[in-house]
Amino acid sequence: MTDPSGRRERKKAATRQKIADAALRLFLERGYDAVGIRDVAAEADVAVTTLFSHFASKEALVFEQDADFEQRLTRAVTDREPQEPLIPALRREIQALVRHCTADSAAPIWHMIDTSPALREYEESMRLRHAESLAAAIAADPGLSRTTTAGRAVARFVIDAYAVAREAADPEAAVDEVFRMIEAAWEVT
Fold it and tell me: Residue 54 to residues 5, 11, 15, 36, 62: CA-CA distances in angstroms?
């Protein structure tokens, strides 16, 4: 017998992905500002209410992997081996995320984000939220005996390392450079 909740979750995930794919295709073809929510819903063949049950806003359609990004960062803290140092674990995750976001296929998406004030503002609020989630994960780890302030500062630096590297001519080198500074700061706290 099949698991109905598993099937239901797969169907919801497929609908969410269909909406996100349709939105991105339309945004890249016509421009972010020229596409409305109704256009996306029609392209994905779903009701507007269905679209909003998966995405809270038009901007969220562009950052459809937001929750995954946040979870990956917090798991870099919570899922590391008991004696593994924090900063190298975070560096590995940021390097993987930067490789993904700097692939040639991502360039048109980042151009769209960089040229839209609404998307830049949404990205900034998203980064702050990610930093707070990461700081909470750091604070919750009993093996990391640092102040709340130190955890929050390092979390912000880690999130900013991603943004700085994404915009750098050599993203990998930028991650390495920023993380040398983060590691030095972490060691003196």
Answer: 17, 12, 8, 16, 13
- Cα separations (Å) of 117 from 21, 123, 124? 22, 10, 11
pTM assigned to the model: 0.84
What does the pLDDT read at residue 1?
46
Report the distance separating Cα 33 and Cα 27, nearest Å. Answer: 8
The C-alpha R_g of the chain, in whole angstroms, comes to: 19
CB contact at 8 A, 78 and 89? no
Are the beta carbons of 75 and 136 closer than 8 angstroms? no
CB 73 within 8 A of CB 130: yes
Nearest to 58 by CA among 15, 18, 20: 20
Give residue-wise pLDDT tens across range 2-39: 455 688 889 998 999 999 999 999 999 999 999 999 99
